[in-house]
Amino acid sequence: MKYTKQTDYKRLLYGFIVLSIAIILTLPWLGLGHFYTRGEPREALVAVAMMEQGNYILPTFQGEFAFKPPMLHWLVSLFSLPQGYVSEYTARMPSAIASIAMVFAFFAFYSRRVTPLKALTASLILMTCFEVHRAAMTCRVDMVLMAFTVGSMLALYKWIENGCRKLPLMASLLASGAILTKGPIGVILPCFSMVAYLLIRQERWQKTVVAGIKFITLSAIIPIFWYIAAYHQGGEKFLQLVMEENFGRFLGKMSYESHENGIFYNVVMLLAGFAPYTLIPAFGLFVIKWKMPNFRKSSLINLWNRFRSIDNARLFAIVTAICIFVFYCIPKSKRSVYLLPMYPFTALLLSDYIIYLYNEKRAVIRTFFLLVASLAAIYSIGLIVLHNADLSFLGDSRSSRRIICQMSELQRMPINAYYVAAVMLPAFVAAISLLISKKKANAILFGSIAIWTAMTMTLDSILNPAIKNSVPDFQFAQSAKVYQPDGRIYFYRPDGVFVETVYTVAFYLDDKIISYTGRTPLPDNGYIMVKEANKEKFLNDMADYNLSEIVVTSNEFTSFKGNLLLFEFNKTMVTP
């Protein structure tokens, strides 16, 4: 595209907007809400183990290795070093920083290859859509992997622009980071996309193969040192874990439940992940002109030639998005977060379509704008009304009881200036956007994004903390610490039966939980936790002890499903 001083000014202004919104959407809210799932504390516990053991290669926690390579845990440890311990905020920080860096790099890259307005629109869609924002706010490997993978793909494209000369150092360095985040998939996805793109451009086979070999070889150099060091510590057990997590997951031969889903799962998750922006192309279906597809050979050849004639930046985005989607349709194990690396490229294509609708079918964008504005008003008013509502009308089903627990936590929040400001923000932004839209037509597009951004901030500042804090794991751990302040509490696992660690409770007990199987020795007195489902076996195994149940989780909606009990035990004195 042609550059002018005005274009450079727009790039700088829009870049500042993208960076500012990316920061505001994430960093202020990371520490609000305790861990409430198994995944977050499991990753955080690895960082805790690293800092306590001084082992940054393959630390063990709760008797097991980490399931993933150490990049996320290194970053959590790094951000936790200034305060000396891992907290919810520092554990989630790598994902937030990765999200900010990825979105800004994406904007900087594409603002030079498409118009700054389209790059801005794509970046705003990317950072505010449901799936990407959720990943940016959690202590999981997915956002860090996404940032490294997308960065590697963008760097590969720049290398291709330069004729694949010299070595793809930046792309390989970023792919190394991706490998150290989640394994070989970090280099497979970028390489697959690059090869497909080069073949579609009809590059010579020799050039394509050499480019792939250069990239893979360079990308493997740094990670191989970690794998060798980790194997030296973990031996065959580590090797088996690596094989299972990478090849077993791909082939659907895991030793534990691994999110097996059908072929249409990825389609549904992609549509849901781009919420609310998927509504725009859905509305657009009603205004486009439909034609019967023509499958004659000449028509297909013409279609293929038109596809290949698309400008390189968009062609690369299309090919990359398709490659990632197709790749993740192959394994039985499917999760919505696996598709994250395709989101930036899909967002670019979606922004093209949205801007087309704005220019040619503006009624579609206006309908979406009015819908989002209406939802914002309902959202704000609903959170105020809900604060004092009688929740008994929801009923007594399990799902109703869960919602009541979550909303009861919301009702315990004080209605102060912070609460009112946070709750009314979406309605306020909607009102301002409606007023501006009467004078400026483009307010219906960016006003929609602004309203959704405000709704997301309300979610993170008010609603999500209530939902997270309604999970009783944290409160249980604090109650247990009253009896055993150092956190050294036993956890019952029936002998011969796999029982997963209660990761959230373990994190809040400072990773001091000690496993007990019924055969391992116990002291004469102490404290022991047991899942309610294992209570009967536990009582049989503890027949030689006097037991007193002293703490139980306040509700059944724990991160591990079901109640957790804390017993005090004392050895029964046998009289001679």
Automatic annotation (TrEMBL):
Subcellular location: Cell membrane
Signal peptide: none
Keyword terms of this UniProt record: Cell membrane, Glycosyltransferase, Membrane, Transferase, Transmembrane, Transmembrane helix
GO BP annotations, alphabetical order: lipopolysaccharide biosynthetic process; response to iron(III) ion
Principal location class: membrane
Transmembrane regions: 12-32, 89-110, 143-160, 172-199, 211-229, 263-288, 313-330, 336-356, 368-389, 417-436, 443-463
A cellular component term, taken from the record's GO annotations: plasma membrane
Top-level taxon: Bacteria
GO-annotated molecular function: pentosyltransferase activity
Membrane listed as a keyword: yes
Topology class, membrane: Multi-pass membrane protein
Domain Glycosyltransferase RgtA/B/C/D-like per the UniProt entry, residue ranges: 68-226
PANTHER family in the cross-refs: MANNOSYLTRANSFERASE YKCB-RELATED, UNDECAPRENYL PHOSPHATE-ALPHA-4-AMINO-4-DEOXY-L-ARABINOSE ARABINOSYL TRANSFERASE
The protein's name in its UniProt record: Glycosyltransferase family 39 protein
Organism: Candidatus Limisoma faecipullorum
